[in-house]
Design brief:
Strand content: 5-15%
Cofactor: Mg(2+)
CATH superfamily: P-loop containing nucleotide triphosphate hydrolases
Helix content: 40-55%
Largest sheet: 5 strands, parallel
Radius of gyration: 17 Å
Subunit structure: Monomer.
Bound molecules: adenosine-5'-diphosphate, cytidine-5'-diphosphate, magnesium ion
Low-confidence stretches: 1-28
Protein name: UMP-CMP kinase
CATH topology: Rossmann fold
Mean pLDDT: 86
Number of strands: 5
GO molecular function: ATP binding; CMP kinase activity; dCMP kinase activity; UMP kinase activity
InterPro entries: Adenylat/UMP-CMP_kin, Adenylat_kinase_CS, P-loop_NTPase, UMP_CMP_kinase
Length: about 240
């Protein structure tokens, strides 16, 4: 039912900046968290077909400020995806009188990851209420716990994983000049977020790379130059995957 898309750039992924600093010391901690996630989540909300078409899921990953949101806007314009930013969904939940409001605020301020139950529920609700069957899920999964929760609860896996690979100094520069009034766009939080990215998100990228799903994008350059690398990923699967039944 779920088609796999093979990566064209795994060798460059392996040699990328981040992958030279593998997170072995984190491995046992992650394994414990993953094991607990496996036993905690059950498939309770399998994703439904839309107009007889299976959902086509892209996870958009990369460190803070690597340009995920910026590129998602261009992918939506060109390829007609529904864009779901996990961070935006959490920020919306935070200001909506939700019981989770203060927990989300504190977690974002500290640059930590909101428990998967909350985030997966928000994402699946948006997916289910959309008429579109092509989804860009931006900033998710950010941990193995996120990944396992999504896969178990939805019964689905991503077709494509985009990884925007950006040096830390460039990410810091971009976040500090983002100017969107975000509580986490300050030097203390960004430092914490970079550590969390390396410890928790790189293992997810590594996991999908081993499954041949990751397309590494060099996130340095102009927005248009970066989009030139993104386009072929979607062009390659436009016909066969986007219209599948
Ligand atoms: N290629 C680029 N070069 C320079 N600045 C960029 C580029 N792409 C995005 N930006 C800017 O960097 C900041 C972070 O981009 P954003 O798309 O919000 O990243 P992310 O969603 O990965 O955190 C924004 O202010 C954005 O306008
Ligand atoms: N899957 C996710 C995504 C975001 N978040 C929280 O939301 C914050 C902002 O995420 P974001 O995706 O909007 O951030 P950027 O990468 O766009 O800068 C993260 O640092 C986390 O605190 C989360 O807990 N779980
Ligand atoms: Mg973003």
């Amino acid at each position: 039912m779920w088609r796999k898309v093979t990566s064209t750039s795994f060798s460059s992924l392996k040699s990328s900046l981040f992958f030279t600093r593998l997170h072995l010391q984190q491995a046992s901690k992650h394994n414990a968290a993953s094991a607990s996630a496996v036993s905690r989540f059950a498939t309770i909300a399998p994703l439904q077909e839309k107009d007889g078409r299976c959902p086509f899921i892209t996870f958009v990953l990369g460190g803070p400020g690597s340009g995920k949101g910026t590129q998602c806007i261009k992918i939506v314009e060109t390829f007609g995806f529904k864009h779901l930013s996990a961070g935006d969904l959490l920020r919306r939940e935070m200001v909506s009188n939700s019981e989770y409001g203060s927990m989300i605020l504190n977690t974002i301020k500290e640059g930590r990851i909101v428990p998967s139950e909350v985030t997966v529920k928000l994402i699946l609700k948006e997916m289910e209420s959309s008429d579109n069957h092509k989804f860009l899920i931006d900033g998710f999964p950010r941990s193995e716990e996120n990944r396992i929760a999504f896969e178990k609860i939805s019964g689905a896996e991503p077709d494509v994983v985009l990884f925007f690979d950006c040096p830390e100094d460039e990410m810091v520069k971009r976040v500090l000049s983002r100017n969107q009034g975000r509580i986490d766009d300050n030097i203390d939080t960004i430092k914490k977020r970079l550590k969390v990215f390396e410890a928790l998100n790189l293992p997810v990228i590594d996991y999908y790379a081993k499954k041949g799903k990751v397309h590494r994008i060099n996130a340095v350059g102009t927005v248009d130059e970066i989009f030139e690398q993104v386009k072929p990923v979607f062009k390659a699967c436009e016909q066969k995957a986007f219209n599948r039944s």
